[in-house]
Amino acid sequence: MERFAAYMVEHQARFRAELAELVRLPSVSAQNREITETATFVEQRLRRLGAETRLLSADGGNPLVYATIGNGPRTLLIYDHYDVQPAEPLELWYTPPFELTERDGKLYGRGVADNKGNLMLRIQAVEAWLATEGALPIRIVFVVEGEEEVSSKTLPAVCRTYADLFRADGCLWETGGVDLSERPVVTCGAKGIQYVELVARGASYDLHSSYATFVPNPAWRLTWALNTLKGPDGRIRIPGFYDRVQPPSATDMAALATIPAGDDETLLADFGLTAFLDNVRGIERLRRHLFEPTCTICGLVSGYTGEGSKTVLPSEARAKLDFRLVPDMDPAEVLHQLRRHLDAEGFSDIEIIDLGGEHPARSPLDAAIVQAAVASARDVYGCEPILYPTMAGTGPMYPLCTALGTPVASGAGCGYHGSRVHSPNEHIRLADYERAMRWMGSLIKHFAS
Question: What strand order describes the sheet that includes 52-56?
Fold first, then answer.
């Protein structure tokens, strides 16, 4: 595919400018910023590619960009999202978050790694194929949604309404890239999630802290409630929480054994830690990471947290939590278990706000899309890729793929361990972007055969 590679080089400046245009749109779904404008931008770019496009939605959700291009005996579904995480805290960014900035061979900007870089390079790789290799040997369906960063709240309804449009022989997932050792990674599943906000309330307004002698403090109330959820041993104490957890299968453990797990010291240094939780290391750390559920406090806020002192008794306290779920856990059931647990512990006054949930999903490791992702990575990177049976993160893989019987694999992505996804100074490396485009071109060839 020499002409393919040459086309990439020739159009590199334009491709980077397109990515900059997309990053410039602050499509923060949590804040409902420029969602329609970004969906329109993506649809227009796919239309310029030659795809037939339409916008889909259900239940008043953000528009989903649907596009089809090419013909062939196999259909490849490509899933990406155009929405991004909030850029806050803004003061920690070295350069404006929504201005793509090149520095030291890297491109910085909110969403450039998650997921606008992968989205654009895949579109551009299809363009390069059409310009140099001719007609596509497969049919490609792009599904680009705008709610991934808020748990894809309406995507299940879209999938039910338009199920026939989404059926495919395989799905290329949004993620992809290389690990700490610079080897390409292919994943075949995702954890589920249930995200909630807990709210404790006290007086109708913040009081002078001297009233703590007889006025209840919602910050203490919330702290005590949170303390019932997880013990010092790391065990989640919600009754029934582990009842549905399926242990890793023999196939899972066989795949786990092939994954390098000797990067403990590198990770510790990168995270600024001296030890991991419970001093876990190596393959056991990786087993936990992939196959165990979690309960995580993602944020806490109450009262005054600014500079200096302000002696107040807060009127409200809030905490955001996520539960990462493994097969066969159900997010709705976890939500119900949480409510029942807090009530039983005497915290029926604490409100639970449901911020969205997703089911865990898994795909066969021997599916054609997995074989294509592995073979194409081997072609481009010149080494054996690492095959993960699942990832520790979450995405709407269940409604879009598992529920419709579509095998799924990640790949053809520009991520790497240091990308700082969801953090200030999110970035990608230019070399990864270019290699991922070649990976995408090779994947089309391998999936067709």
Answer: 52-56, 64-69, 139-145, 75-81, 170-172, 408-409
Rounded to whole angstroms, how far apart are CA atoms 117 and 433? 7
Please tell me the pTM assigned to this model.
0.89
Distance of CA 251 to CAs 54, 254, 256, Å?
40, 5, 9
What is the arithmetic mean of pLDDT over 429-445?
98
CA pair distance 157, 95, nearest whole angstrom: 38
Alpha-carbon distance 134 to 87, whole Å? Answer: 40
Q: 3-class DSSP state for residue 198? A: strand
Kindly report, residue by residue over 82-128, the tens digit of the pLDDT. 999 999 999 999 999 999 999 999 999 999 999 999 999 999 999 99
Residue 78 CB contacts under 8 Å (≥ 6 apart), including other chains: 122, 140, 141, 142, 143, 171, 172
In this structure, the number of other CB atoms found within 10 A of the CB of residue 107 comes to 23
Q: How far apart are the first and last CA of the chain?
A: 16
Residues 6 or more apart in contact with residue 222 via CB below 8 angstroms: 198, 200, 300, 302, 317, 318, 319, 350
List pLDDT tens digits, range 200-216. 999 999 999 999 999 99
Distance CA 77, CA 332 (A): 28
